[in-house]
Amino acid sequence: MNKSSSLFILLFSISLISLGQNDSLVLNNGNTIIGDLKSMDKGVLTIEPPYSDSDFKIKWEDIKEMKALQRYLITLSDGQRINGSFSSVGEGKIFIDNEDGEDLTVDQNDIVNINSVDSSFLSRLSANIDFGFSLTKANNQQQLNGNLRMGYLADRWSLELYYNTLITTQDGVDDIQRNDAGLGFRYFLPADWNLSADIDFLSNTEQSLDLRTTAKMGVGNYIKHTNSLYWNVSGGVALNNETFSPVFNPDDGTSTTAPSRNSMEGYIGTELNLYDIGDLNLFTNLTLYPTIISDPSVASGRFRTDFRFDAKYDDVFIKDFYVRAGYTLNYDNRPAEAGKEVDYIFTTGFGWEW
After folding, report:
1. CB 64 within 8 A of CB 27
2. Cα dist. 345→174, 233, 245, 328, 330 in Å?
3. Does domain 123-353 have CATH number 2.40.128?
């Protein structure tokens, strides 16, 4: 084969590759990226170019024009979920070719989520894990904390799993332990409403909790939902079961355990996530639990509160690595006899997300 034939085959192959890549982006700086557009979530678009083994992640605000001819599930800020393709039709305007109804043109900032309908299981999965450790010479105090979160986003529903642990040891005193875990399910309805089902587990030394299991069902609404933040408010009912740790009495050398408790509670919660502050991500969650019905072992007028705040700074030193600082508080105005009303922790960690 002569050089002319080889050059022709090479140019022909490049042309086929270019034609096969229907998705394209034009950035604000004039650069063009051609590839396979996979998703956009929390203000970050993911595209896989043919010349790289790694996906490119680009901020939504840095994209000037785009064309995506594959089939996507597109979520708008008013809660609409549309199946179809999309492309730019003017500065800041996106035309959506709706497979199931009337086509429409929207502002680029009104698009809050994009998912390829044919995307793989792994591309819809997200996960992050981090650890922190501290050592103090005085009394040989050591503390280890860990945090794991995994999520899956389907077309009409999402699933989240989390687990947090903290262990503190110190010479001359009992170990302090705290573990909480949970599984949450969301089903998305029109107009940014959603149905939720959650089960949460908590064990901590401070409140003498061997295990608190809370199963709750409710309904929520995204009051604000954009590609830079979301604010969700929800409410419903919860079933609560608690067992308690034995308490040692040094006077007579015996241990006693408070009886287990069962109750039905109402709940109202709010959740705010800000994820477009540069590389900083802020998350806060507050849930209030007034008791509706309880067994005789629970005093009347019981009220519980769970609060969480996380600050996460992304891409520290290495891409996909982060540092996190978190604060968690649990309040119970009718704790077990040996427990405290308030338990709170402050943790820091270094981790990786996918």
Report:
1. yes
2. 17, 25, 20, 5, 9
3. no
Pairwise CA distance, residues 76 & 111, whole Å: 5
As a whole number, the mean pLDDT across the chain is 86
Q: What is the pLDDT of residue 54?
A: 76
Phi and psi dihedrals of 7, rounded to 5? -65, -40
Q: Where in the chain do CATH 2.40.160 domains reside?
A: 123-353
Residues 352, 200, 213, CA angle at the centre, nearest 5°? 145
Cα–Cα distances (Å) from 339 to 138, 143, 209, 246, 335, in that order, read 27, 22, 8, 11, 6
User: How much is the pLDDT for 12?
Assistant: 40
Q: Are 89 and 105 in contact (CB under 8 A)?
A: yes
Structure tokens at 191: 């107009």
Query: Within the chain, which residue ranges are assigned CATH 2.30.30?
Result: 23-117
The whole-angstrom separation of Cα 101 and Cα 87 is 17
Question: CA 316, 320, 326: angle at the middle one, nearest 5?
Answer: 65
pTM (2 d.p.): 0.82
CA 279 to each of CA 62, 156, 167, 282, 313: distance values in angstroms, whole numbers, following the listed order = 14, 28, 30, 10, 6
CA distances from 321 to 46, 59, 258, 280 (A): 17, 17, 44, 12
CB 174: neighbour CB atoms within 10 A? 10
Fold of 23-117: SH3 type barrels. (2.30.30)
211/299 Cα distance (integer angstroms): 19
